[in-house]
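pls design
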């Protein structure tokens, strides 16, 4: 791919190869005046991921700006890595993936196939659309649970699922998001932290402000500040309209139920999750909470959360517990004013 294309799809391996061939070192990228534009664009990428939301359009890349845009991507990855925040990482990956999906929608089928091959994804051309190997279809749609995405509802022939262009791009978006997320965080040294010191502190402030705006009222009477990191992240992903994997949805529903939310309140939390139909949501909530099933499920233990990759890493309290519900109870005890009894706390 040429520079013009790699500036649009900087997450491809070829983009790193091109940067290497240009002879740009990390030290130069961090400090040379020649790369000030790339650094500014990289910071902007992170700001936009945080402030504008994943769906906001990205401006077209002018030819003179292509190299800077290409270099802005590693700068943005460095900044995201230095901040080490799971919520920001996911938001960044989602925004980059949605931007790539939009750019690919205007690009040729060859470009789509080229990007898919590098992820890697077995995507091929099919009369007027594409076909994807069923294993890749399953792999990259496992967060999308409603009927149009179930394998059983797909036209399947000799192991391949036929997809219209738009649907193929949607699968590709998931693959790009996963590819970007899996590449983060990068190792970050003191030089990097020093080079972006003021940016890091500014973005950290924005990040805290953003998290503080999560609509606590949406989750009714419970206290969001007592949530363990895992449940906080799941809730953030839902409120950020990100796809949450099945185990994550199960965990947050069971958690919210056990800390005292009713089914209607839990349903409202899930109201905006993409690719998650209302009737499916309602059915799953009723099933997990024991309303329509003989079992009232409890959230998974920490060990299970870890094995599913939805534990963002323990904090001080996590190190002393084995179950996310214990976290909520301990936080409640820490925050409770003197004289308040256990019975008054959830
Ligand atoms: S250690 Fe347990 S409570 Fe803490 S974030 Fe991980 S899964 Fe959640």
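designed seq:
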């Amino acid at each position: 791919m040429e520079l013009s294309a790699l500036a649009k799809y900087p997450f491809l391996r070829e983009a790193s190869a091109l940067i290497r061939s240009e002879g740009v070192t990390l030290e130069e990228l961090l400090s040379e005046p020649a790369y000030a534009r790339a650094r500014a664009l990289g910071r902007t990428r992170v700001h936009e991921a945080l402030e504008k939301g994943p769906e906001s359009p990205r401006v077209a890349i002018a030819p003179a700006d292509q190299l800077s845009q290409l270099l802005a991507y590693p700068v943005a990855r460095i900044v995201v890595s230095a901040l080490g925040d799971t919520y920001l990482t996911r938001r960044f990956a989602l925004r980059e993936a949605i931007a790539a999906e939009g750019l690919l929608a205007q690009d040729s089928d060859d470009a789509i196939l080229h990007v898919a091959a590098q992820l890697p994804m077995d995507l091929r051309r099919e009369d007027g659309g594409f076909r994807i190997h069923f294993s890749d279809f399953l792999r990259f749609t496992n967060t999308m649970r409603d009927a149009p995405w179930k394998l059983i509802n797909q036209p399947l022939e000799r192991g391949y699922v036929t997809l219209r262009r738009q649907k193929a791009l949607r699968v590709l978006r998931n693959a790009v998001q996963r590819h970007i997320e899996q590449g983060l965080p990068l190792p970050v040294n003191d030089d990097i932290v020093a080079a972006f010191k003021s940016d890091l502190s500014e973005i950290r402030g924005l990040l805290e402000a953003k998290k503080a705006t999560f609509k606590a009222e949406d989750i009714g009477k419970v206290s969001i500040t007592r949530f363990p990191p895992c449940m906080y992240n799941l809730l953030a992903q839902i409120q950020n309209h990100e796809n949450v994997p099945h185990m994550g949805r199960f965990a947050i529903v069971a958690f919210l139920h056990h800390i005292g939310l009713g089914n209607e309140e839990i349903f409202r939390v899930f109201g905006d999750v993409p690719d998650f139909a209302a009737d499916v949501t309602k059915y799953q909530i009723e099933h997990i909470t024991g309303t329509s099933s003989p079992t009232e499920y409890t959230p998974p233990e920490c060990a299970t959360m870890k094995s599913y990759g939805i534990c963002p890493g323990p904090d001080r309290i996590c190190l002393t517990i084995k179950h996310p519900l214990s976290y909520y109870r301990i936080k409640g005890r820490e925050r409770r004013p003197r004289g308040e009894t256990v019975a008054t706390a959830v």
